[in-house]
Specification:
- This protein is an alpha/beta fold.
- The protein has 2 domains: about 230 residues, Spore Coat Polysaccharide Biosynthesis Protein SpsA, Chain A, CATH 3.90.550; about 110 residues, Rossmann fold (3-Layer(aba) Sandwich), CATH 3.40.50.
- It contains 12 helices and 15 strands.
- Helix 2 links the parallel strand 4 and strand 5.
- Helix 8 packs parallel to helix 10.
- The relative contact order is 0.10.
Length: about 350
């Protein structure tokens, strides 16, 4: 049970971190979805990150009427700084993230709390998302949601972490002790949430996923993942390759030598980060025979036997990537032991 002093929850079990910046059009919906959670022992820390619209008024009204809501101000601009300020002020045993433009389903906190209580070996948990597009040009995000909802088990999260982020940040809840031990979001020229998941997974933190929708993920033209350079493809590949280098030292007996599946200009551009990290690309593999004229490309049917090289697959298209994976498995290659999927 909670200790309550003058209608204030002294010992909340969950701390919800909700940063916002000029979010007057969606903040009410986001906060209301937390207020209506079936799990009641929470505090929701609202962090104003230099808003100049009506967001602060909305936040103040909630804080004045519901003691579970607390308003902080963070002057350093950026969701990373605002989220970390919220974490530093948190008092819960568990910490959950929430964005100002999304909506948490009523059972979200209860389901994730139950998962972490019943699975002590897991340090964090996320959940499925329902994607809400804003115009006709959202196919990329919709495909990502389909993919991220398909990555469910910890073993899948671990194996596929270098394709894209296997966790949608505002669906996540973790034990506060995990962040105390391995750190929260870090500042840099990279997506702060993806870097944190890669860091935690590298440290051995098990991350699970609730097989139910916990969040409505609202897209917009102003969403940071669309507008900020730290969420660009280049930023993702740069940071994932840094962590990939450490993984290859562990699983690749031929390290620093690797073979890259995909000889297109885009694949070569993404694979260039391997060279930046002192990894040696022996050659490229491609299904297009016209590219075999290049000295550094071999035809896919001529790949070495399993156990003679380590292949990194740079194929973004999901169906083609799956087709490539099936082919490699038919040749005796094993994901995580003789090949990895990278995009």
């Amino acid at each position: 049970m909670n200790r309550i002093v003058e209608n204030v929850i002294v010992d909340p079990i969950i701390s919800v971190i909700l940063p916002f910046y000029n979010a007057e059009n969606s903040l009410q919906r986001a906060i209301n979805s937390i207020a209506k959670q079936t799990f009641k022992s929470f505090e929701c820390i609202l962090i104003n990150n230099n808003s100049s619209d009506g967001s602060v008024s909305i936040a103040n009204e909630w804080c004045n009427n519901d003691s579970r809501f607390i308003l902080l101000n963070e002057s350093k601009q950026g969701v990373m700084f605002a989220s970390n300020a919220g974490f530093n002020a948190s008092r819960g045993i568990f910490v959950a993230r929430m964005d100002a433009d999304d909506y948490s389903f009523p059972d979200r906190l209860a389901l994730q709390y139950e998962f972490l209580v019943n699975n002590s070996e897991f340090g964090a948990v996320s959940g499925f998302v329902e994607y809400v597009g804003h115009n006709a040009n959202t196919d990329g995000f919709a495909r990502y949601v389909d993919w991220v909802n398909s990555v469910q088990l910890y073993s899948e999260i671990l194996a596929k972490r270098f394709i894209e982020s296997p966790i949608v940040n505002p669906t996540a809840m973790w034990r506060k002790t995990i962040a105390d031990t391995y750190g929260m979001y870090e500042s840099g020229d990279f997506p702060e949430d993806y870097e944190m998941w890669l860091r935690w997974l590298q440290k051995g933190v098990k991350i699970g996923k609730i097989k139910q929708k916990v969040l409505k993920w609202y897209d917009s033209n102003n969403r940071l993942t669309r507008t900020n350079h730290i969420y660009s493809d280049a930023a993702f590949f740069k940071i994932k390759t840094q962590y990939l280098k450490h993984e290859l030292k562990r699983v690749n007996p031929f390290c620093p030598k690797v073979v890259v599946w995909g000889a297109s200009q885009i694949s070569r551009k993404h694979a260039s980060f391997l060279v930046d990290n002192n990894l040696d690309i022996e050659y490229f593999i491609d299904v297009n025979k016209s590219k075999i004229k290049k000295n550094d490309v071999i035809y896919y049917e001529d790949i070495p036997l399993s156990g003679e090289c380590f292949i990194l697959v740079y194929i973004k298209h999901h169906k083609l990537r799956l087709k490539t994976q099936i082919f490699l498995e038919s040749k005796g290659y094993v994901e995580g032991k003789s090949y990895l999927l990278l995009s």
